[in-house]
Amino acid sequence: MANRRNLSHADIAKLIEASDSEEVSEYENHTSDAIESESSNNDFDTGIQQMSCKGSIQSKNREIKWKLDPLPHSSQSTADNIIKTTPGVTRYTTTKISDVKSAFDIVFNSTIENEIINMTNIGRKKVYRKMWKNIESKTFQAYIGLLLLAGVYKSHEESTKSLWDKETGRNIFRATISLETFCNL
Questions:
Q1: 27-31 contact pairs (CB < 8 A, 24+)
Q2: In angstroms, what is the C-alpha Rg of the chain?
Q3: Spatial CA neighbour of 64 closest among 46, 82, 80, 91
Q4: What is the distance, to the nearest Å, from the Cα of residue 92 to the centroid of all Cα atoms in its chain?
Q5: Beta-bridge partners for 66
Q6: Do the Cβ atoms of 6 and 49 come closer than 8 Å?
Q7: What span, in angstroms and rounded, lies between the C-alpha atoms of 173 and 125?
Q8: What is the pLDDT of residues 32-85, one digit of tens each?
Q9: How many CB atoms lie within 10 A of CB 80?
Q10: Checking CA distances to 142, which of 8, 20, 70, 167 falls within 20 to 30 Å?
Q11: Separation CA 82–CA 103 (nearest Å)
């Protein structure tokens, strides 16, 4: 093992500058090789060895350069980041959406709905095999509606079975789809 020598940051910077200019003496080259062999044997961070005086660190293969100081940040927002429209219901909303179903159709249009139904049927057939009956659009809409309704009722800490319970549950859940179908979906 080579003789260990502690180098200061200034010495390391001089070695790096000397290696960049390719005017390295035998002594400096020997010292640099000793440092590299010791660092590989001791898992020493090579980033410190490649620190330069300019406030940056280069990667081992010298392709990436990291700055030690953060970039200056402006506290003012650009004009692109400022919202200039009035929040709230827009004209489009008032003309196109007349009921809850039309609002729902904007988010889940028929293309998205059909894709979700097809993928659900494919996935569930792999799990349930011949026992699975393909779901239809009405069943999917009922499932999504019950999820939204559970949110309206703030049922996030309530068990699913209790929503369908005859005594403590809500009638709309039992009337829409069965608990088994809901859990399978």
A1: 31/5, 31/7
A2: 33
A3: 46
A4: 32
A5: 57
A6: no
A7: 25
A8: 444 444 444 444 444 444 444 467 888 888 888 888 887 777 666 677 777 777
A9: 5
A10: 167
A11: 27
Tens digits of residue pLDDT in 80-134: 777 777 877 788 777 878 887 887 787 778 899 899 999 988 988 888 888 888 8
